[in-house]
Queue: 3 jobs
Job 1
Amino acid sequence: MASTADPGSFRDPLSRVFVTPAGIRRGLSTEALNDYRALATTSFFAQAMMRGDIVGTRLLDADDETAAIPGDWAAVLAHDPVDVISYPYEWPFEMLRDAARLQLRLTRDALAERMITKDASSYNVQFVGTRPVFIDVGSFERSRPGEPWAGYRQFCELFLNPLLVQALRDVPFQPLLRGSVHGISPATTAGLLPGTGLSTKGVFTHVKLHARAERRYSDADQRDVKAELKRAGFGPALIDAQLRNLLKAIDGLTWKRPRSTWSDYSERSHYADADLQAKEAAVAAAVRARPDSLVLDLGANDGHFSRLALRAGARSVVAVDSDHLVVDRLYRDLRGSGEQCILPLVLDLSDPSPGLGWRSRERRSFVERVRPDVVLCLAVVHHLALTNTVPLEEIVALLADFGADIVVEFPHPDDEKSALLLRRKRQGIFERYNVANWEQALAERFTIREQTTLPGGTRTLYRCAVRPVG
């Protein structure tokens, strides 16, 4: 494998991330190297890496063979890899809030040792299970006397504003962040919160006044705003006060939706004990056949089968569901128990995350980023086929896109849940929804290793190996 530049790191002119056969590398310019050397002498940096708050990082020797990357760089860093890359528009509310807290805490710690973060993108944070990890070491630079925190606007657009619109308006931030990799502007946020939440900490200062200031300084290209702020005495004390104010605003936000479509629902609730046991046995057998595997659990709901996969020997699990509240609750539960091997994400399988940003490559699609060894697709097919009207062949194609072994459940047309969905449809529209057509579609892309009809007789489980394309 040749070394390739990460498509999401090109916006920093002083450093660039590369994926190499030896691992993750970051090229540093001379200025970036000087910043890193200053960072490496601080106490907070080493302590943050020990806690796992900052990705493991080391400076490579010039004669280290693994330091060879494209370009003319003054030095090269090696970073510990993150198993699965996720993006803010796939996180539930509480995940984004925890990522925001980490950004602010690290920036305050840096400021106390004459460093600062030059930006504040939520894409600079990744999650290892439920633990947020700051990955953009190139973001730290030496602070400059009299200059404001350059990351303030970006923090508002990619952390605070998304949390505000969901907390105060119950508007999911995920579609808004997916609509623009730059986040939600102060003006847009102010428009979503007209006359609302002015008593909520941070709204007036960070939204209303921020939007007004943007209009006032719209001619910033003709004005030296930094010089104006320096003359006004902007320094570390004011920046720290700003960071503390933002942290209070973040801590004061909660999302109080009590229920959602799937929050009080479990597909297990109508299973007979024998059916559930057979389903659990099939999942455990599939995972045990691929020890130390990465498992993708589609339609994870409360994470029952994700936890089962871990007990069966999976290295880690990506648990996805389309219901924001369900995933938020799962994240809180996992965080509370200290579980760091399950990554819960918000994902609508009928509209999975596409490639976004510059040339539609800056933020890769979900299928490109998540490359599991085993895929669990349980109690999902009938919803995709009958609610979202996705043809059976297309459902199979999506599963094959992951290039992994699968355990997939097909509810027959006479299954209680399938029958309920079919009764809502016009008669004759879904005649192709049957076992024979499903198995024909499945056999086109997979080799069926094992199939088991559950004791109840209305659902069949298939354990399959993906066929190589071509």
Note: The two ends are 21 Å apart (CA to CA).
Job 2
Amino acid sequence: MTELTAINPATGETLARYPRMDRDGLEAALARAASAAPDWAARPVAERAARLHDLAGVLRDARETLATTATREMGKRLVEARAEVDKCANACEYYAEHGPDLLQDTMIASDASRSFIAWQPLGTVLLVMPWNFPYWQAFRQAIPATLAGNTVLLKHASNVPGCAEHLERVFTAAGFPEGVFRNLPVGSDAVEGIISDRRVQGVSLTGSEGAGRAVGAAAGKALKSSVLELGGSDAFVVLADADLDHTVEQAVRGRFQNNGETCIAAKRFIVEEAIADAFVERFQAAIEALVIGDPMDEGTNIGPLARDDLRSELHDQVTRSVAAGARLVAGGEPLDGAGYFYPPTLLDAVEPGMAAFDEETFGPVAAVTRARDADHAIELANRSRFGLGGSVWTADPVRGEALARRLECGCAFVNGIVKSDPRLPFGGVKDSGYGRELSELGIREFQNAKTIWVG
């Protein structure tokens, strides 16, 4: 294919076609990023931070254009798309303010008269990014990477080509030099070759488990630094003493925001048996009150899935789970008509071995599993090959913290839904990947921790 096609998932209609970058264009982009890297790294960190301040302003000025493109290309609600742009701007300001301190040399006492770690950029970093948060996923790696002095190449998901073009434009408008951030409108078949190119020093991927294994293998073969943020099947553990009204309200938010297409969405609701019936009853009522419709409409709660094949895959997981013994409480059938809509769906009596428990369900499907007690709930939560996030809901935060420590995941929350925050490291364990984004740890991933010893 010589084009990337943007399709409106609310209607199924083609929005636009974008030419793919040819081999000569890719070579020119690689060469320009490599040539820009030394000059960008040599600029004072205060200058790089100033560009991030400017970038925050550009994002806020372009908020409506950026949000509308995201909604039209991948189907998230317009109100959520606006919030995503705001989050990107806030992260720019956070790193502009705090990042320079993170890049200072770290002094370490030794047998030298002076010894320290000098934090230096690697060079050029490839970002392979998904469609579900078309701006935030790219920004949360590009912001710390560029502030650290790296140049960035973006290979975005093929169904959000307009968003990818916007990303390059906002960096240019903020005064970043040519070559510091470049969009590569190429297919997935080009990724391994880019990783192996000597002018690329690292790669970060957010995406599926399969994509992560492929990129991780390519990075390992080329001996390149890599960060992988992959799928999740986050447990939402509800203890018998939890405030049910508040917990159900947050369960709806944690599962169904972004149309349920979120790696850190709560997917497996593990509830103590003593309150399970009451939880399911309230959860069902809240789910059935959600409004499905046009994501551009302010009154809509659930928009379409991003692609028709994703809807088919999700429905297959629901069907297989019900066939294996899960109880369908709400939803469960694709909606007729235009667009890739799937209703908010609730499954009860889900057990390990069922698709809704073992696999990542990327869409508006909530699976309830009943636990005998808190220990059994944690055991069930950890009975997953994924380990991105998880949460514990209880009236006793001290007990909640103790249980959160036992969750096998990279991000554990007590009485709050899992979210990413520039101040805190973000990433997973097990089949959810490795490495960290955001915070001080995120900025370190694509830096050379150079030891300097002075006698």
Note: The domain at 3-230+432-454 is CATH 3.40.605.10 (Aldehyde Dehydrogenase; Chain A, domain 1).
Job 3
Amino acid sequence: MFRTAWVVLTLAVGLSSRAAAQTGRLFIQHVAVVDVIAGQLLPDMTVEIRGRTIAAMRSDRPFRVTRGATVIDGRGKYLIPGLWDMHVHLSFPAGAAQIFLPVMVANGILGARDMHSFLSPVISLKHAVASGAQVGPRLFVAGTAVDGPNSYLPGARVVRTPDEAKEAVRELKAAGVDFIKVYSSLPRDLYLAVASEAKNEGIPFVGHVPYPVTAAEASDAGQRSLEHLTEVDVGTSSDEAAIKAEEVEAMNQKRGSIPDPNRLKSTFDSAKAAALFERFRRNNTWQVPTLVVLYQERQIADSTLRGNDSLLVYIPKLLRDYWRSLPIDIAAKIVALYAFHAELIGPLNRAGVPMLAGSDSPNPYVYPGFSLHDELGLLVRAGLTPAEALRTATINPAGFLGLTDSLGTVAQGKVADLVLLDANPLSDIANTKRIRAVIQGGRLLKRSALDTMLARARARAAAGGN
């Protein structure tokens, strides 16, 4: 979001071997299956997995367990679909992917959307994960974000004319990206050129709402997802035109712009907000709030919290040192903005605006894998039910990506991307952290295997990511 990619280093795509896919059958007996669509439990179920697929589910009578099958006693356990983090960055710093991707799997995250990385390395990384050469969640990637000549984003694909903007869309698609990401400093005419060419090429475009464009205009232009509620917040203000003018002026000086949370609160226009949210619903414009990236700025704003986080062991020293160097004044403003954004979640949800869970890791104190669970907790604190929050990381990503035929729920015929929990996430969303086992594409990873993955990640982080 605001601080992504300030430290920009080349991604070293070293490939680690993945264990062979499980052979034979796997049975999970007497487990409570979480129906994420209905928000209900299916008690005392037996789930049969053959190869990569959920072959059968039954509660009325037991399966005949075949010789040599693996059997898990699911009594007291809860089975959910694999989780998704729909906003991550994997290129920063060097060697990050080899630490972060296994940590994500150990946290039950089996799908992720990379929202700005160096193009060639992230495409290679996507293929390495798909082939099994690199442990990690399935990846959907944007490659490099498209931005304008006054870009302040390191590594951006800078375009200066409508023709260059259209060429960027075509070249990124040809390189194998799954969508085009636009960034904050993209001039209005270049933004519209990207939108037009993306439509012509049949590829979605997502990302920030650029400073010269309103959130309503982005929705009408067909932008598939809006990240971080940036410009959505400004769009609820009666002072939107003046704020946008100030943002454009900052853009012209190659600076980012963070709106004043007090100004947004004092000028909040409920009728304007309702109309904007209805537009999002009508246009099927998805929101990725990434509340956690704002919330975690308190670790910078409050000096008593610095260096006290046990999860720092998963972060290479270079990145830790960078986090600790960041100024307190900007962090305090971002923390205040978190409170305003959190107040928008309930109204967005009640208006029927579709939402996706994303962490924006590894921004300051936003930890790959772990912080997705924190995002779910913040969404609940902001007004979602646990079931609604769980949907933002399961069935909603599958729907956004057009994968509901194979992913997003625990159901017969779907890919066996599953997480076995020790406690009910529908009663407390924090229970998504209580992971007993992960099943990735039918391959069982017991708690001991997940702990080994985490230990190796800590060791790699301690070695600087090498």
Note: The longest strand covers residues 25-35.
